[in-house]
Every structure is written in C-alpha cells, then in structure tokens.
Amino acid sequence: MNSPVKRENAAADRVSHFPKHIREEWVGRVYVYACVALLVVTIFSIVWFIASKGLTPFVSGAIRIQDLLTGRVWKPEGEPPLFGALPFLAGSAYVSFIAAAIAAPFGFCAAVFMTQIAPKVGRRVLQPAIELLAGIPSVVYGFVGLSVIVPFLRDTFPGQGFGILAGSLVLSIMILPTVTSIATDALSTLPAGLKEGSFALGATRWQTIYRLILPTTLPSLLTGIVLGISRAFGEALAVQMVIGNAPHVPTSLLQSAATLTSIITLEMGNTVGGSLHNNTLWSLALILLVMTFLFVFIVRLLERRAKR
Amino acid sequence: MKKSLVLVLTLIVALTLAACGKNNNEGAASGSPSASDSAPASSASGEALSGTILAAGSTALQPLVEQVSTKFMADSKYSGISVTVQGGGSGGGLTQVQGGQADIGNSDIFAEEKFKDADADKAKELVDHQVAVVAIAPVANPNVGVDNLTKQQLVDIFSGKVTNWKDVGGADQKIVIVNRPSSSGTRKTFENLALGGPSQDLPGSIQEDSSGTVKKLVGETPGAIGYLALSYLDNTVKALKYEGVDASVENITTGKYPVWAYEHMYTKGEPTPVVKAFLDYLMSDEIQKSDVTDMGYIPVGDMKVARDVNGTVSNK
Amino acid sequence: MKPKITDRIATGVIIGIAGIIMAILAGLIVYLLYRGLSHISWHFLTSPPQSFKVGGGIGPQLFNSLYLLVLTMIITVPLGVGAGIYMSEYAKANKLTGFIRLVVEVLSSFPSIVIGLFGLLVFVNLFHMKYSLAAGALALTVFNLPLMVRITEQALRGVPREQKEAGLALGLSKWKTIQSIMLPMAFPAIMTGTILAAGRVFGEAAALLFTAGMTTPKLDFTNWNPADPHSPLNPFRPAETLAVHIWKINSEGRAPDAPEIAAGASAVLIIIVLLFNFGARMLGRAIYRKFTATK
To answer: Domain ABC transmembrane type-1 spans what residues (chain A) (predicted)?
Structure first.
C-alpha cells in the first residue's frame, strides 16, 4: 500500500525539479512528433492493407500479373473467368491524358492572363473563379456531365454520348484549377529582369511569352500537368457517371469505355468478399496506388529540373 | 538519439491506434447492441422484443425493406426493435451476413451462385428467406417500333449478331445495348432465364449497375435496349413482350412468363427471435398484399410455381 | 509589322480563353441554380427523403454532411496542426524530413476511392465500426490531413521571423513561443485554409460510399443521446451525406420527382460550397484588416 504513494511522491519531486519551460517543451514535442508519426503510420497501413488484399490473386496463383496487365478480356463470371485489366488501364490513361491535353493550354493561357496581361482583373476575378472550380464537388460535375455534356455529344456526334470524350471533358474542367495554379506560380516567380530584357530588345509580348517564358517555365508547367493527370486518373464518381463502362479497349473517342476507378465503383458491392473477382478488384486498387507513387515520382523529377 | 526517439514514438502511436481500434469496437458494440446480444434478454412468451437489426445488401431490394422497416418500427408491438437497412450490393450483403457484420443479407440471387468453388461451404451456413418475387422485362426506347422479341432475337441482339432494329421488325435504327456489369444479379437472372446463356460485353455497349440509370438511358437514348425489374417500369420506356408473353402479374405467377427471380434475405443460421419477428412481419399478409405489391414486387405466396437453385421450375 | 499582328492575335486568344473559363464557371453555376433553386424550400431542406412518393427532402442528408464535417474537423485539425508545426518548426533539413515531406505529398495524391477502400478494410471491417459516421470521419481525416499539414506549415512560415525571435529572446520555450505567439499570428491563414478544406470535405463522395454507407436510419431529432441508435448524434450509425445522396438519386432514384431532387440537392451543395469559399475569403480579409489596421 505504501510503495505506490512513495513512487508518486518521487515522481512529483522529479517533475518539480524540471524547470517549467522544459516540461512544456517536452509536451509540445511529444505532441507534434506523435502527429507526424501518425501520418507515417497511416501511409504504411494504407499500402500494407491494400497491397495484402490486392496481391492475393497473384500469390494464390489464380491470376498471373502479366495476364492481368495485358489481358484484353474482362469476363470475371465467365467459364473460365478471364481477368484482363488492359481495357481499364487504357480507359484510365486515355481519359486522363486527353483531359490534360485539353486543360493544359487553357491553364497556361489563364496563367498568362493573370500574370502578364491583366494581373488586376486576374487576381480579382479569374483567380477566385478558378479556385471555385476546384471547390465544386465531383458528384456535381458528374451530374452536369450526365445532364448536359452527354446529351450534347449524343445529339452532335454519332454514338450514345457516353464515352472517353464525355469523361475527358468533365475531367478537364476538374483538373483545370490544378494546372492553372501551378502555372501561375511558375510565371509569377519568373525574375522581372528576364521579361524586361526581352521587351527592351524589342520583342512583342507574345514573342516574349512564346520564346522566353514558355521554355523557362516548361518543367513547372509539366509538373502541373502531371499533377492534373494524377488527379484525373484517380477520380471515380464523375467519370463513372459519364463514361459508359463497357470493358473494352476503346477504338474511338465516342465509344463507351471503363476506367480502373469506374469498374471498382461498379463491381465492388456486387461481389462477395474473398472471392477471386472481389480480390481482383483490390488488385486494381493496388494498381491505382502504384500509379500514384509513379506520378509523385515524376513530379519530383520535374521539380528537381525546375529548380535547376 | 533523435531517430530512436522517432522510432519509439512511432511504436507508441501504432499501439495507441490499435488500442483505439479496440475501443471503437467496444463503442460500436455498446452503442448498438446487436440482435444476438440482446435477444436472450427477451422471452418468447409474448413479451416485447428489443434489439437492433442490420440488413445490408441488394440495392434492388433495399427500398422495399426500408419501407417495411419504417412501418415495423412504427408498430407499437415492436417499438423496442430498431432496424437499419443498408445498400452496398448483393455481394456486400452476403459477405457481411456471412462474416457476422450484418444480421440479414439482402440478395437478388441465391447465395450458392455467389459463393462458388472454394467458398461453397460459406453458402451452406446461410438460411434463405424468400420474401418477394421480382420479374425482369426487356425494355426498349419507345421509338424502336418493336413490341415483342423472341428468345432467339434477344440472344442475337445481346451477342451483337443483330445490330439494327429493322432486322427484328422495327425501325431502321442502330441498336444500343444498355447492359449491367458482369457481377450484377439482375444480369445473371436475365442471362439465365431470358437468354439461356451468358451475354457478351460488346464494344460500344453501355454498362450501368443501377436500375434508375438504366431506365433513364433507355428512355433517352434512341435505339436503346436494356432490361429492368418490373418495379422500375414506367411510361418513359417500353416493356417488350418475351416470346409473345406479357410480363403481367398473372403470367408471372402461373410461370408462363419465365424471367423472374426471388428476392432473398439471408440469415446466418436460424434467425434470432428479433430478426424472426421482422421477417415474419415482412411475410405477413398485411405487408405482402399492400407494400410488396404496391412497389411492383410479387408476393411469394401468390406464386403457383417455384424455382430452386439450379433453375428447375416446379408446380407448387 | 507581322510580329505585332501575331501578338495581337495571341493576346486576343488568351483573353478569349480567360473569358471562356469564366463563362464555363458562370454557366455551371447558373445552370445548377436555375435547375435547382425552384425546388428548394424549407420543406425540402428539412424533411426526410421519400423512396416512392413526390415531395421527399434532404433533411437528414444535410444534417449528416454537416455533422460528418464537424466530426472530421475535430479529428483532423489537432493532428494536422501538430504535424504542420513539426514541418515548419521542428523538422531539420535531413533525410527524415524529406521522407515525411514525401509521405505528405503521396498521401495528398491518393485517389479518394483508394482511401475509401482502405477505410472499408480497416475501419469498417477490421475495427468493426460497420458503415458509420465514425468510419466515414476517419476516412475523410486521411483524405484531409495532408491538406491541413500544408496549410499550417505555410501559415507558420508566413509569421515574421522577428516575432519568433522576440519570443525566444524573452526566455520562452520554443513550444511556448509557437503556442502563444506564432499560432495566434498564423491563425487567420489556418482558419481560411481550414474553411476551404471543409468545402472540399463537404462535397466528397467516393471515399464515403464504402465507409459512411449509403443509407440513413430513421432519425429522431428530439433524441440527442449520442449512444441511442436513433439519435442523430450517434457516431456509430450509417449516414448518407448530401454528395452521396446526389450520386444515389442519379442512379437509383425511384421517386417520380428524382430529377428535381437531384437538381435541388446539387444546388444546395453548390450554394454551401460557395458559402464556404466566400466565407473563407471574407473572414481572411477581415482578420487581415484587423491585424494590419488598414482600411
């Protein structure tokens, strides 16, 4: 009975010998280190859990990795079941690259407008507008895509409206803010002397932009584009609502296609946990995860080049 | 020194996390005692039952169960019971009831069709409660100029052999197929009973999981064909006759119209008294004759034929 | 003469594109409001949805979205601020810091659906939370945390060095300096960033499909006991948020007025996001004015 009290007293003594500010410092430090540790734990558990689920089909020998990556036929309920994820890889790649191809010139022009042509109007009107675009939820984009873009495409072009083009258009608006904000940052940190020198040499504004600003900021612009692609690659609901979801490698822009994210949203709930079909969907999620790492890696490479 | 500190902290956080997980777990258990926990507390001798029921799964069955659960909870006899209904798809429902996370798993198809091969044993632990029958009809855009399709014509369309409506006696219009994802229960039913075999995922076809979207697409897209549960039909789409037979209630109950399936509510083992009370309520005439029929389903009791897992139809 | 003409054309094109972007945004918002506003009424905002009848509302969904946001922020803000303080004040320029920076970057670029699946695996299944607000809030925390870290770090870096040095010179501990000098200085920026992040959380759906679920049990809004399954405050009940509801209505909606409900709900969502945006901007400006005493 005595000993715990004694120990407590001893502890209290020791604490009182610590100057107050050191104790404070320690509490603070433990707190921030814990927060950071939590971040690290989170990321490792995400990778661990998704990977352990996603690797099951390969480990059990049911599917070979190369079959999943290069197979063109997705027939999980067939006899025998076929799990070819190439259609989804292709679909994801198509929509995100086309979206980036649309968003990149728009984003660059918007950035030029905000930094070189009309900074005041840009800051007061365009910048908030673009930030607003970033804030609009993806289901709302999907809703607009479904009720505006798809009917428009269906009436204008042959086909049903659903497909790669519809998905790319929706995504391009969604990633425009990412591309624009990074381009704007790059353009505004350009040394003023560079531009003035060019003007002094008699170059027009466009010549300056085209010959000088574009090449010098190119790595940063590319960073923005890669980040945009990365975001488009992982977007789920808006794309799923407008792309049509046929599991085929699309042969035209107007053809229904599927992406990694859309097939996961569609089929995850319909399959029973632990079945091969279900586990393969986790493999697709793992591919998404690996792609994220790849994109981050590319962005890092580009950033390093931009700094040089 | 610094690095070791970080290491130690990481470990602490990891442990705390694990502990948190446990706490949350307990929290969940105390926050919503599951039916099995509290069931023994109530006696079967007519005393009020109390507990909670979680039913998860099929989105096609979800509206019916939701509707009935609202009525059930409003009934003073069952005021102690709280029913929660979740979607998540047939597969999710079966997984959850099998794993014990849900009390009832709602499914559009037999559990045996989902738990296959290595998992076949899992289906044996589940007890099937067939609560309603749903018929599936081929539907088309109202302007295709066709109102009847034979089985062969359907097979030709869904395998891509026929691509224009004029080849099956309709307008000169390209056929647009609106199919379901390969994991869908509705698709499986339609394939087995209307087509007699698997359909193809044709390039250019559209796949949507939800009946609402399918209805919307078929209604809006010129030349579209799809299939819908009867409960979703309205005048924006045209229900086609199958082999000359209308998907009317009479034709379905007598077995003349073959494309129908049970809606299942699975429990793991025999249901607890609380779950049983809910299932009995759902099967009562009061509900079967009103809510079930109002929502476009057919009461199981009205069926003059029955079908087993293998698809064999027999007279009752 | 020719370069001048090209210059004019190019300038015209750039201004045109800026105009197009504005037009897209304006068109988007006008379209959503035009389609949805007529459907918004007090009844729509407060009553529960109807599966089959006309006249369903979005009351519980609206409440779920707000409650989930509050839960998420209660978890995210302390963690995010803590990690942000580390990044700006305690991190040394070494490999470990570089690694943590990478972690934050990767975490912020994970697709939200992957985070949702992770939530399904860990919070819903492993921790047995089932589909619940708590699981949803934790998934959203993973989604939002890197953003909070960045906001805090940038806000703290924006504090003038002299302020920090003055604190340290007074003999305050580093932590005390951060706590009572730097954080209050950085508060406006953190606040603005947090509100913007809140707008993002509010509209998130993909991560919630598999964690918070797609249904809402019958709620009894007179029962505020968080342990009761019917209480709106119970964090262990499933909850469908407004964004998820829009997704579901667009696909499974069977009420005759489903398109109007989807439009109305989208309009409500967009209005709330606009409010978050303008709110953050105005608050930031107001606090800035107060601090700098300019007009």
So the answer is: 89-299
